[in-house]
Amino acid sequence: MTPKLHRRDGSAVWVPETTVAVLDRAVRERPHTVAMVAGELALTYSEYGCAVDRLASRLALAGERGGTVAIILHNMAATAIAMFAAQKAGRVAATLNPDYTAAELRPLLSDAAPCAVIAIPAVLERLGNAVASDVLVLPVEDDLSFLASLSGNAALELEPPRPNDLATLQFTGGTTGRAKGVELTHRAVATNIAQREAVLPTQFGDERVLCFMPMFHSFAAAMCVHLAAYTAGTLVILPRYRPDWVVEAIASHAVTRLPAGPTVFNGLVGYEGLTREGTRSLRCAYSGSAPLAAETLTRWEALTGVPIFEGYGQSEAGPILTYYGPGMAVKPGAVGPPLPLTELRIAAPAGDAGEVLTRGPQIMRGYRGLPEETAAALEDGWLHTGDIGRIDENGDLHIADRKKDMVLVSGYNVFPREVDEALMAHPQVAAAACVGVPDSYRGERLVAFVVPREGGAVCAEACAKWLEQRLVRYKQPAEYRFTNALPQTAARKIDKQALKVLAMEEARDVA
């Protein structure tokens, strides 16, 4: 049954049954509105819908219904088209980081077992024979050539996806070093879009959303791609974040919604081109993926007069669980109350900090091919988030720490064990352990402690060069420290808490 939702003013919120219905409504009701702008390319909703239909018809001929389409593209119109087309074809959209090395991509593709791969040529070259010969491969050089390649495809009459069908396979890190594929149904993703609308109301047909966050990430999919389509607004796509590009795009496209991570806001408040006049079109900004410093929030609002609403979530939760919205008493350091239809509780006595548990219609079905990890994460019907927090007397969530061994670098989850294992594969490294320390710009940065092999010689430059071939840039340590031994706990395990203290003490000495 489709749930009923209302905004704070009492008006009803449309709750779609599938992600496909979101785009279909925009195409039907605003066909001539500009749907996407990417560089020199501008597509109306009619053109957007036509491209999706043609690609969906081609994907429907690949594999079986319910198969996965791996989408490995940079920020471009083709990424959004491919996401909706895969789902319209009754397939599952799996967006992967195009900057990943072949070593990082291969296990993800193995888990996804795609029936089709849509990727930039550099990725396909990097993968070589890692893609099975019976898989449909669609290279995407640029948006214009991609759209031209679809022009000859006939749009077939396709059976629409059902609410309980899988819509998305979103890969997220794992504490064991293995990435996990989060399976989300159409109902989960579509309901989460409506849950956000209830708290963060928009104006249908009159929104312009700026997207420079990586489109393969769940935050950008939710707060950029889906948000723009739900509002029948314009998605303005930038290839990546640069403060001058962002400020220029806000002014030239009259952007109304600005989703970003704390690292971006940290950078923008220090950029001299950010002015109240240049941001006058903005109605609000959305922050997520990591806590926003109170100082950044204060400086941003002083410079622009625009509110930043903070929220919290994770890929396993569709991905949003909490958000502050207009009319709410925002508290610095808090991430808001739970969205409608969402329950939160803390696995600790009232008032104390403990693991955040949650349940609601947006929660994942499970992890792809990992029944034991799924059972542990969804124990008794509650998602165990792995984050430590508390709920205050007003019901607002405060995130205190992470239960998982995870470092959040510029909004990206980095699991140190994956980096440790990559470093220890170096023939001159006997042991390695990475920890995260606070960083005023990135949120956190990774520090690697390395023990060279006896008689061996290894330096920071050699470690960095080794990891360049194995890990994407944001997973690579910001600094290396070499030592004769790593501290151990009584159980003879590497004492990462001791390393973290040491890393922070040495950082203060340098400062």
Task: Supply database-style keywords.
25% strand; four-stranded mixed β-sheet; GMP Synthetase, Chain A, domain 3
Structure, explained:
The chain has a domain at 407-510: GMP Synthetase, Chain A, domain 3 (2-Layer Sandwich). 31% of the residues lie in helices and 25% in strands. The strands form 8 sheets. The chain has a 4-stranded mixed sheet with strand order 4-3-12-11, sandwiched between helices. It has a 4-stranded parallel sheet with strand order 6-5-7-8. The protein has a 4-stranded mixed sheet with strand order 13-14-15-16. A hairpin with a 7-residue loop joins strand 9 and strand 10. It is globular.
What is the strand and helix layout of this fold?
Elements: E1 5-6, E2 12-13, H1 19-29, E3 34-38, E4 41-44, H2 45-59, E5 68-72, H3 77-88, E6 92-95, H4 102-112, E7 116-119, H5 121-127, E8 136-139, H6 143-150, E9 166-172, E10 180-185, H7 186-199, E11 208-211, H8 218-230, E12 234-237, H9 243-252, E13 257-260, H10 262-269, E14 284-287, H11 294-304, E15 308-313, E16 320-323, E17 343-347, E18 354-359, E19 366-367, H12 371-377, E20 383-391, E21 397-402, E22 407-409, E23 412-414, H13 416-424, E24 429-439, E25 443-452, H14 460-468, E26 479-482, H15 496-510
